[in-house]
Amino acid sequence: MTMKRTKFTTCCFTLLLCLLLALCPLLVACGESSGDEGNASGEGTSVPSSDTTSDETGPGPEGDLYQDAEGRYTLDGLHMPAFSFEQKEFRVCVYDNVGQSTYYSEEIGYNLYETTDDVLNDAVKTRNDLIAEKYGVTVVACPVNNVLESVRQDASANSELYDAAMPFMPDCATLAQDEALYDLKEFGNYIHLEAPWWDQSANQSLSVGGKLYFTTGDISIMQKITSMALTFNKRLYEEYCQDQWGSLYDLVREHKWTLDTMYAMGRAVAAELDGEAGMSYKDQWGLVTANIDAVHYYLASGESLIRKDASDLPVLSIGEQESSTNTAMKVLETLRSNESWALIVEDLAGQVQGSTATAGLGVFGENRSLFRTTAFSAVKKLRDFANADAFGIVPLPMASEGQETYYTPSSARFAYGICIPKSVPNADFSAYMVEALCCYAKNTVTPAYYEVTLKYRDSNDADSMEMLDQYVFSNVVYDLGVIYNFGSVSSMFQRLMQDHSTAVSSSLDSIRDSVQMAIDDCIEAYGLQ
Questions:
Q1: Half-sphere exposure of 403 (CA within 13 A, CB side)
Q2: Above 50 in pLDDT, residue 28?
Q3: C-alpha Rg value of the chain to the nearest Å
């Protein structure tokens, strides 16, 4: 049976969006107070915090400090210092859709791009209007091709064009090591990093030596857009896998969803379609993925590239324990062990015209792959495939059934970090407005993207909604090895994939000194030696 994706009429979908946004404060209040992230039906589902650990991190009950009587998140209970808002604009340097065709900012300014979903556009306007009403400050998005270079130019010219910036996290790390950013912890009176609108996993992971130069939370939707998961074709699954493995969703719930199981399912589906010897772009695949995704499967095992010691300083983690090396080898062997089950998009060079990544998405969108490793940016792009079968969403598989839980790696090279450059005109004003922008986005921008766009438009089935709530966004991890790429420790996976190699130990030995040198340079740049 062929299952086509459900298509809402414009009228019905608009009504659904309005109803969901109207209910969001109630959903937040009910869900957060009970600690329940939602149920399989998607009814009564709370709006998840950007915090990927727990919301019970504040100095008191959220109802007393962080929410008003109606369950809306607010700064009113935090006794923010009195502030004279002499500046009437809050200008945030963000990426435009020229320099970035996919990862451009839609969460700071509204009516910037025709491609932005109406519900997200409206939510950003609602948040910005609220800030204008409360503080007399207009939020202004300043789109540029390259945020890193624009911030550097602003500082060099002393032009004071921006009050905050949202570069990609690796660019945040570059600016921080250039001593161009404030430590956000210096603004404890204004920025309440323990509040539920800040991502506690990011706060913990991104600090170095107790300093936090950039982080994320509800101020951005990009950390969700760049989180990694797996889409699967429901028709192919039903035809080839259902009888042997049962419900894929149940396998996830029972903690039996593993790398080996994904491989076995993919092998069952992969088949020749074009009548020519050898697997090609035109055939049917078990998995569509990319060389760069190998590190995501490794991080999904709970292993890390870089950990932090008792002094909150980065330390090379991969290779410390035999288990990490074995897991890395298993990932590489699985993805590259059999060329007839997994389509690596870089291998399409010469087979297709244009972007190999776009071509790889087409293989899944044209119903010729069971699985696709995906960031959620690509889930939106599946709307372009009118004849696509219904698809589901599950977390990346565990390395083995003995793994404690599922982990969702952030593809942090394209996730935004919010930062306050030292070139801003008034750092306290910037800190206050960063906190306001983040807090009030939790009532508006986050639910517009997560509850409405991602869950009800792009996934649109109760099981996938449960997967998103309970398994994908419940444990997002950020690895300093991905963000700083010390000594090319993250790039190592990509090189091994390109070489069809599993020689993890020798590759680590070859870069170990350069990794340590890069870590030492970072620590010195932060004044921690």
A1: 25
A2: no
A3: 23
Residue 83: predicted pLDDT: 87
Q: Which pair of structure tokens corresponds to residue 147?
A: 């945020």
Q: Give residue 63's pLDDT.
A: 54
Structural tokens at position 99:
């320099």
Name the pTM for this structure: 0.88
Q: List CB contacts of 41: < 8 A, sequence separation 6 or more.
A: 462
DSSP letters for 147-202 = HHHHHHHHHHHT----SEE--BHHHHHHHHHTT-B--GGGGTTT--TTSTTB-HHH
| Distance separating alpha carbons of residues 402 and 490, to the nearest angstrom | 25
Residue with tokens 């990932």: 331
Higher pLDDT, 9 or 117: 117
CB atoms within 10 A of CB 365: 25
3-state secondary structure 42-76: CCCCCCCCCCCCCCCCCCCCHHHHCECCCCCECCH
The answer to whether 270 and 285 have CB atoms below 8 angstroms apart is yes
**Which secondary-structure segment (H or E) carries 526?**
none
Long-range contact pairs involving 144-148 (C-beta distance under 8 Å, separation at least 24): 144/93, 144/94, 144/95, 144/96, 144/99, 145/95, 145/96, 145/98, 145/99, 146/95, 146/99, 147/93, 147/94, 147/95, 147/171, 148/174, 148/175
Residue corresponding to tokens 């379609």: 273
**C-alpha to C-alpha distance for 431 and 420, rounded to whole angstroms:** 7
CB count within 10 Å of CB 295 equals 27
Q: How many residues does the chain have?
A: 529
CB neighbour list of residue 176: distance below 8 Å, 6 or more residues apart: 213, 214, 419, 525, 526
User: How much of the chain, in percent, has pLDDT values that exceed 70?
Assistant: 88
- Nearest CA to 174 among 526, 528, 455, 463? 526
The structure tokens 């939020």 sit at: 139
CA distances from 74 to 69, 131, 444, 453 (A): 10, 11, 12, 24
Beta strands in 166-318 (DSSP E): 228-233, 285-289, 306-308, 314-316
Strands 164-165 and 89-95: parallel
Instruction: Tell me which DSSP letter residue 443 carries.
Output: T
**Euclidean distance between CA atoms 199 and 216, whole angstroms:** 6
**Tokens 């190592």 -> residue:** 492
The count of other CB atoms within 10 Å of the CB of residue 178 is 14
Structure tokens at 363: 């293989």
Enumerate the β-bridge partners of residue 398. 258
Q: How far is CA 428 from the centre of its chain?
A: 28
Inter-residue contact 70 to 23 (CB < 8 Å): no
